[in-house]
Amino acid sequence: MVPQYIFSIVEDDLNILNKNLQSMVGARHPILNAASEHLFSAGGKRLRPALVILVAGYTLKNQTITPEHRRLAEITEIIHTASLVHDDVIDECITRRGVTTVHSMFNNKVAVLAGDFLFAQSSWYLANLNNLNVVKTISKVITDFAEGEVRQGLVQFDLSISMNEYTEKSFYKTASLIAASCQGSSMLSQLDKDLQDRYYLYGKHIGLAFQIIDDILDIVGSKKNLGKPVGSDLKNGNLTAPVLFAINDSPQLQEYIEHEFENEVDISEALNIICRGQGLKKAKDLAEEHIQTALNILPSSVSSSNDKHLYALVLVGQYILQQIN
Q: Which keywords does this chain's UniProt record carry (predicted)?
C-alpha cells in the first residue's frame, strides 16, 4: 500500500518528531500546556514533516539527516497545528482530527492564545536554525495563512468567485507551507538556487492537490476520515473546487448558496446535487493535473534513480488521491 510505504521510510523520524513536539511546545501556564498536549496527542497525517524528511533524505544522498532538518520538520508541524487552532475558531468546528477542538474544550480566548503561542514557539525555533534564507522562507508562510483566511472570509457564499481566486486562496491556506517546507529542506541541504526553486514548486503543486482532495472530502468523506463533520466548509459558505464546478450545471445549487442554506434540509440537498453532478470528477481531474505537474518538476525521474526517498516523493501524489478512494 502506498501510504504504508511512504510513511514506513520516515517512521523512525516521525516517532522522534512526535516525542519532541509536546516537549517543544510545553507552556508554563497549565491551560496552554493542556491545550498543546491535547493538540499533539490527536496525531494527524504528519505529511508536512514527512516531506521535509523525504527531501532531506534524497538531497543529502548517503549522509545522515541533520538535526536542522529534523527541527525544520517539527517547526512545520507546529505552524500547521497553530493554523488549525485558529481555523477552528473561525469556522466554529467542534471536532478536528477526530477529537474535540481546543475552543470547544476550553473557550475561544484560550484557543486564540494557544494558536498565537504555537506560532511564537515556531518562530523562536525557526530563528535558532541560524539560516536566514530558511527563516525568510518559512516565516512568510505565517503571513500567507492570515491572507488566506481574510480572502476566504471576504468571499463566503459569493457565487462570482473564480477558479483562479480559489487556487490563490488554497495556496495561501495550504500549499504555501508545503512549498516552503520542501524548499527549506533543500536549503538546509545546501542545494543551488535552481534546485531549491524546483522543490518549492513541487511542494506548491502537491499542496494544491492536497487541498482540492480535502475539499472533495468535505463533500463525500466520512467524519472519521475527515476529522470534522461532512459539509462543514460548504455550510460556512466556502466555495471550493467541486462546488464551483457543480454550480455551472445547477441553478438549484446556486439558489441554496445565495440563500445561505436557510432551511435545515438545504445543505444535505446541496451535497446531493454536487455528488450527482460532474463537480467531483472535475475537481479530482484538477488535483491530478497538479500532481503530474509536481512530478514533472522533481529534479530527477524514478527511472534514473533507485533512491527510496525520491520514490516516496513520487508516490505522495498517489497517497493524496487515495484519500477519496
A: Chloroplast, Isoprene biosynthesis, Magnesium, Metal-binding, Plastid, Transferase
Q: Which of the given ranges, 16-20, 22-26, 108-112, 223-227, has the highest pLDDT on average?
A: 16-20
Note the pLDDT tens digit of each residue in 270-280: 999 999 999 99
**pLDDT score, position 164:** 95
Number of domains in the chain: 1
Dihedral of CA 150/156/158/164: which sign? positive
| Euclidean distance between CA atoms 226 and 45, whole angstroms | 11
Give yes or no for a contact between 52 and 72, defined as CB atoms under 8 angstroms apart: yes
Return the C-alpha cell found at 74.
Answer: 517539527
Residue 313 pLDDT greater than 90, yes or no: yes
Q: Which residue segment(s) compose the domain that 219 sits in?
A: 2-322
Instruction: Give all strands (DSSP E) within the chain, no chain letters.
Output: 95-96, 99-100
Give the three cell numbers for residue 213: 482532495
Query: How buried is residue 154: exposed, middle or buried, by Cβ count under 10 Å (0-12/13-18/19+)?
Result: exposed
Q: Under the phi-then-psi rule, with left for phi > 0, alpha for psi from -120 to 50, and beta for the rest, what region is 238?
A: beta
Using alpha carbons only, what angle is made at residue 173 by residues 170 and 179, rounded to the nearest 5 degrees? 85
- Give per-residue pLDDT as tens, 224-251: 555 567 888 899 999 999 999 999 899 9
**Domain of residue 287, CATH code:** 1.10.600.10
